[in-house]
Amino acid sequence: MIALQQATPAPDPLSVPANAPEHCPGTESELAGKADACAGCANQEICASGQARGPDPALPLVRERMSSVKRKILVLSGKGGVGKSTFTAQLGWAFAADEQVQTGIMDVDICGPSIPTILGIASEQVHASSSGWSPVYVQDNLGVMSVGFMLPSSKDAIMWRGPKKNGLISQFLKDVDWGDLDYLIVDTPPGTSDEHLSIVQYLKESGIDGAVVITTPQEVALQDVRREIDFCRKVGIRVLGLVENMSGFVCPNCKNESQIFKPSTGGGRRLAEDMNIEFLGAVPLDPRIGKSADYGVSFLDEYPDSPASIAYLDIIDKIKKQLGDA
Amino acid sequence: MSAAEDTPVARRLRSVKQIIIVCSGKGGVGKSSVSTQLALSLRASSPTARVGILDVDLTGPSIPRMLGLDGHPVHQSSDGWVPVYADGSEARLACMSVGFLLKKKEDSVVWRGPKKNAMIRQFLSDVRWGELDYLVIDTPPGTSDEHLSLVEHMAPVHDRLSAVIVTTPQAVALLDAMKCLSFTRATSIPVLGLIENMSGYVCPCCGEVSNVFSTGGGAEMARSEGLTFLGSLPVDTELVTLLDAAEAERPGEAAALPEGGSRRSFDLLERYEKTPTAPLFKSIVDRILERLSSGPHGQTQLNQAA
């Protein structure tokens, strides 16, 4: 009855197709096409015949497109609103600060794309050419792709179930003309669901260099982040490290620091220790960060001397070091 | 959908008078904390009010933590799953979340849409809520599988559905709140109103109010979209700390309590009522109750006879 603690052997989450029925054992499973849940599934025969254990037809195309991308980094968190998109944008800007470095940002948060606004390119559109969709360029060496560029109005809600999201993500990976990239940074939605599985599945062959996990200090956020790290381990993604965002607030009036989101269980630092991952650093809460994001300007460029900028740059250095690029 | 009137979900929710969906589009704006406060305040709104809270954030359930119920098991009875009662034997605040079903709380729930859909259907049809005056449903961010499944499965009880939208004041969040509003319009769910959360932070040291995530955006959006503005809530560190409940880590003790109830979490209401946010939230709930009694469904639905 309780679907959760699986009665059948644990399926490999990566092998469950996006349009699978409930309790699909996964196409790679021994039970593929033979489990009770398979009855009535349109793909039952294909699964039972063993053919489905072959790869998704989009995979070779993704591999080809991604062969010109050196580093692929995911920004993850589990919890929403902790600053994934803001961090992704800062990371993009920081990489692209070196004119020789080609950077791409891919926003796979399909229901809540924030990247276009944060990068100040919300009104742009995607153009298609013979070589694919061209990304929107913030500057010569910083290209961006987001579903936000494809909506007639920013008010429009994308009410998609998993399979359609999966389809768009595969298009983002195979149809976007990224060109040669040194870094591709992928901003993800909160949670551990379709978008995450899709991106991992499609990039498995090309290889993901690692994930940066973002959290805020309070336990409610850490709980979700623990689950995200567990997800990374399950699917075999290397965690480059953990960033604690909104860590402490300096009152502009009295200059005293207080904790808005109290690290009641030791915050990100303790979590990183417990889970044996690198703690990349803590970024203090600065109202100007949110404001910069709303106006679509780079916080690092606007306030280079602020403690938050220094923390950001230090974290970015550590990420490069983890990647072996520093 | 010929038998739409008599699905298991419809049968189960027949004894629920009002269903309030808390949604936002954006993550981390305080949906779960608003849902928790809403449930607590609705429970306190009358000495006999019975409230349920259903957490359909399947990959990031926060409600158990916030109600201090981390680590409670869910029991199965002949009549379905028994919800976990946050107020022990009084049993007026029932809670169900995927968090109760995990073996270890750090286990990730890595599910695609169809499994999420199945879980939500089970939550709606198999939980033994009993008679409820209000069922508060906390949702994950976005407008995707969970939301579509909720609306789909609750189609037979659509006339008792309404939504509360939560946002924070900054533009990036308002953008997603707009999407959420478009969703409620597309699915014709009446919106009770908008809450602006994290609107300003009072420095505990000097009392200076800082607009950490700017301010006023929610009220502005409510005005331009013709929504009821239910109120704004400042960042309240006391509330954050209370709902983060550092001392809740006593699974052994919690499990030993009878009927899934816990003495500690009943204190939660008393302690909640002492936070600076509680009186502010009370006026929000008053507005919500007013909207509910005057029939938010006027524009979309025929009246529902009791």
From TrEMBL, chain A:
Give the location in the cell. Cytoplasm; Nucleus
Which gene codes for it?
Answer: NBP35
Primary localisation category:
cytoplasm
Q: Does the keyword Nucleotide-binding apply?
A: yes
**Where along the chain is ATP bound?**
78-85
Show the InterPro entries listed in the entry.
Mrp-like_CS (IPR000808), Mrp/NBP35_ATP-bd (IPR019591), NUBP1/Nbp35 (IPR028601), P-loop_NTPase (IPR027417), YlxH/NBP35 (IPR033756)
Q: Where is this region: Disordered?
A: 1-28
Q: What is this protein called?
A: Uncharacterized protein
A GO molecular-function term, please?
metal ion binding
Protein's organism: Pycnoporus cinnabarinus (Cinnabar-red polypore)
Could you state one GO cellular component term attached to this entry? cytosolic [4Fe-4S] assembly scaffold complex
What function is annotated for this protein? Component of the cytosolic iron-sulfur (Fe/S) protein assembly (CIA) machinery. Required for maturation of extramitochondrial Fe-S proteins. The NBP35-CFD1 heterotetramer forms a Fe-S scaffold complex, mediating the de novo assembly of an Fe-S cluster and its transfer to target apoproteins.
Q: Which Pfam families match?
A: ParA
Protein's UniProt keywords contain Iron-sulfur: yes
Q: In the record, what lineage is assigned to the organism producing the protein?
A: Eukaryota, Fungi, Dikarya, Basidiomycota, Agaricomycotina
Instruction: Locate the residues binding [4Fe-4S] cluster 2.
Output: 251, 254
What residues bind [4Fe-4S] cluster 1, as annotated?
24, 38, 41, 47
Automatic annotation (TrEMBL), chain B:
Primary location class: cytoplasm
The places in or outside the cell where this protein is found are: Cytoplasm
Q: Alphabetically, which GO biological process terms does the record hold?
A: iron-sulfur cluster assembly
Q: Spell out the molecular function terms from Gene Ontology.
A: 4 iron, 4 sulfur cluster binding; ATP binding; ATP-dependent FeS chaperone activity; metal ion binding
Origin, by domain of life? Eukaryota
User: What are the UniProt keywords, alphabetically?
Assistant: 4Fe-4S, ATP-binding, Cytoplasm, Iron, Iron-sulfur, Metal-binding, Nucleotide-binding
Q: Which residues of this UniProt protein bind [4Fe-4S] cluster? A: 203, 206
Function of the protein: Component of the cytosolic iron-sulfur (Fe/S) protein assembly (CIA) machinery. Required for maturation of extramitochondrial Fe-S proteins. The NBP35-CFD1 heterotetramer forms a Fe-S scaffold complex, mediating the de novo assembly of an Fe-S cluster and its transfer to target apoproteins.
Q: Which family does it belong to?
A: Belongs to the Mrp/NBP35 ATP-binding proteins family. NUBP2/CFD1 subfamily.
Q: Return the protein name.
A: Uncharacterized protein
Kindly list the organism's lineage.
Eukaryota, Fungi, Dikarya, Basidiomycota, Agaricomycotina
